[in-house]
Amino acid sequence: MRRKAATWTLALIGGTEGMWHNLEQAISQNTPEFIEPTGVTHMVGMLGRRVFHFLDNGKQCTTEMPQRSKLDHRTGVPMEIVLYYAPITCALAPFITLTEAVAKFEVRPLNFGKGQHTSPEYLKINPKHKVPLLVVDGEVLSESIAIQIWIARSFPQAKLLPADPWQELQAISLMSWYSGGIHPFLARINSPPRVCDFPGTDESVKKLAAANLMELFKIADDLLAGREFFFDHFTAPDAHFFWCQRRGRQFELDLSKFKHCTEHFERMMQRPSVQKLLAFEKSIQAEFAKAA
Ligand SMILES: N[C@@H](CCC(=O)N[C@@H](CS)C(=O)NCC(=O)O)C(=O)O
User: What is the pTM of this model?
Assistant: First the structure.
């Protein structure tokens, strides 16, 4: 039944994060939706991707949604989110969290094989020549942890960090550990000469890194004992740790002995956000292979 909307503009201009999120979901599902978050706004249908029909005080109206993904809740300005990414890399963690947040974002894949991360254009926006890199309305943000926190704060309804402030810090502590404690050892296995270019030392570098990683994954295994996720529901650290495990497994570290890590990995593999990421990664790898 169609109902009268008194102040429909609230939804588009002064709407809460939650209302906006609902609208975004309605758009992404591309189905007509009735949205009634405040009791004053009633969407009565939707045409195509961005055009809405609604009743405004009983009068049929049509409006076009802003082209961007969501509104900045402080300024009301639309945001455009771009993720620089490369297959296999730790940029998959923010891909997963953005997907979990139902954010609209554009991915710009970099072909490391072709050195696109060291191109003059990319170095201009990220002199560290690394991914992930997030660009929000032209503003650049590097470092996985900062990016994950930004996503969590910008999409609070997705609950990507624990609500309790102390637990939130624990989540940030965990991600710092993945990034500063685990990742560097994975990077050594990936490219031993980056840490030691003495001839014939590659295997030794890899062996030492693997031994360190086994100790670190044991700590993670203990943290995950009896739990589905690091906190009481899926949060950003789960996505970040998924990448650490995946990379370790790709390097053929025997992580199967860590039962809780293995279960976490399998659980993560089932998530639609991870499935979406893996399909995307596959398509980009195929594109890169064609370009090789
Ligand atoms: N501390 C950074 C590390 C990022 C990082 O090392 N990314 C790797 C891929 S996993 C990269 O882009 N490497 C390319 C390079 O070093 O040239 C973060 O957490 O974002």
Answer: 0.77
